[in-house]
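Question: Hello, beginner here. Any chance you could explain the protein record under this note? Any guidance would be welcome.
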Amino acid sequence: MTPTLVRQQPSQAASPHPAAPRARARDWAEIQERMLVPLYEAVYERLGVGPGTRLLGLGCGSGLALLLAASRGAAVTGVDSGHGELLALARERLLPGAGARGAREEAPAREPAPGCVRLLDGMPGEAPTASGRPGYDVVTAFDSLGPAPNGGAEGLAGALGEAVPLAERGGAVVLAGWGPEERCATASVLRVAAKLADPVRGADTCPQATPPRHEGGPRPASRDELEEAAQRAGLRPDGSGRVACPFGYADTGSAVRGLLSTEVFDTALAVTDEEQVKKELTEALHPHVREDGTVWMPNVFRYLVARRG
């Protein structure tokens, strides 16, 4: 079930004040995104990401996954489209002094040096590769965990279409999603989004934890959906793993801000008032509040490593 807990720009209905997108992007970067660090690190460790690795991050958002890869010595390129506030935060993290630049960070088409960082506001097919050189060793789709436009493996494979040709032959493409629902405590909390967005059907829908980047009710990926999506995209599955990614917050207020920074609750915010969403979300979090006031929800995420033939 991993939604793509990512940070989509909130809709106008959900964000009437122009500062709201900036505030939500900051909440994502400072509160929610760090919950996925164990997933990022497990993938990098398994693939031996380090000096000499050329890594492309799809839907890079505010860039924490890229930062971790760059700290290992990898040359990283991040691509995202339509998420200017998040990319601005990525520049602050990865390109000191570049935060005030325009939306596009031009990247020279040359072999990147170890630790080199390149950011692109655009589509995956626009990502630069050095002329006459191999493609990327590793392509990650950490932010593409939610349902695709048409849902299911077919939609996810379509979203990967532009990126797969950028991987070198034998290169790794990593997909990720929620683990079994019974091992994800956040599942019950995320159902609030479905219930408020569609009171008639919401009780039977389990949204994702990472913000879905597409319209429609978020839902968990089935056990075999990542493998099917990889095969539809012309990739060969080459192993998978599960990683514990508990969601921990200093207090209920931080938990509400973190979860609302994802895109999971945007439809609910568009059809009801924000206070109602916050009230029901707070109630759903109550069973996970510990004696010291902190919030703790154990979760398991799953990743698939696939190879380009």
